[in-house]
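Sample A.
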Amino acid sequence: MSEPIRVKSSAMAVNDAFARKNRELFAGRGLAVVNMIGSPGCGKTSLLEALGRRMGKKLAVVTGDLRTTLDADRLTASGAQAVQIETGDACHLTAKMVGEALGTVDLDRAELLVIENVGNLVCPAAFDLGEAAKVAVLSVAEGDEKPVKYPTLFVRAGLLVITKTDLLPHVTFSVERVRADCAKLNSAMRVITTSVKAGEGIPELEAALLSAGTPSQ
């Protein structure tokens, strides 16, 4: 005869407790914080490199990958502060991981903290890390159907950054379709377009991240 197993504290509840601690820390420092989520290769790190060249140490990044410090090395070289979390087999960052990593970041020098999540459109969207907003990143090379196929992220994100727009002449991708689909999923979401290669949209991105990452009073 089987017996029910009672779970007293879910993994999500534990994560949320650490997220609250992170959020209190961020609020106490007046820090703008966003959780950047997108597929592998969508251009998250390239965007942050461009921001690092503009902001220097005012930009702090906690970046997650299964292996290597490649992204943190790139971001440090751009002038930003960066710390790498290697998750092993985990497909997303947790609030506890982020909180522990912050000990190596000089938050007193930072104005904007970007948590660059593991490349994944699904799992990272479900976890609160203490951020003020989630930011979805979608490259034009991925296809314009992604918001309707993977709605969880796009429902929860306050900002969508469309990347690699210099490739638009070479791929089948409708910015208008993405805007329309996202408006149906989340009418409050802001959408901006960028191209690191062409140097387009980076000042707008900086302003949008600072705005999205600052909690509303």
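Sample B.
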Amino acid sequence: MSAIVFPPRLSAGVQNSAPPEKRLAFFNTHTCERLDVCYCTDGRYDARALAEINHILRDHRTSEVSPIATGLLDLLHTLSLRLDTPHPLHVISGYRSPGTNATLHRCNRGVASQSLHVYGKAIDIRVPGIQTLELRGIALALASGGVGYYPKSDFVHVDIGRVRSW
């Protein structure tokens, strides 16, 4: 195993490149709940904020709450910065319980049987004032995971799995 060593001046720049505060704003389209929260400060995740995020992104069909991967939250934070909009992310589907996912898969073969939603690593969103085609393009440009485009249902799926699109 090898390590990457940066010269002191360069490594200082790398360490300071992370934003001091990461915020996310959500509107759950099924429960009408809103949340605007700072979930990470100076590289430290806030347990209370993460619990609030887990709650708003819960399976709205069963009310089951599960941890949402911080990698997904960081991806959403980056996406939000690129969108540069005052509007919250409108959540169509965050976490899905295994039972909910199995039911959705039986009814719609477009739903993956091993969906990353079940692991808190995927979310389906739209943003007021942003065309879903534009949202898709920005998500694709990040090349940070999967991006699904659902123009008829007016949402975009983003996840932190392997880079792919559909």
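B remarks: Residues 1-15 have pLDDT under 50 and may be disordered. Residues 20 and 139 are 23 Å apart (CA to CA).
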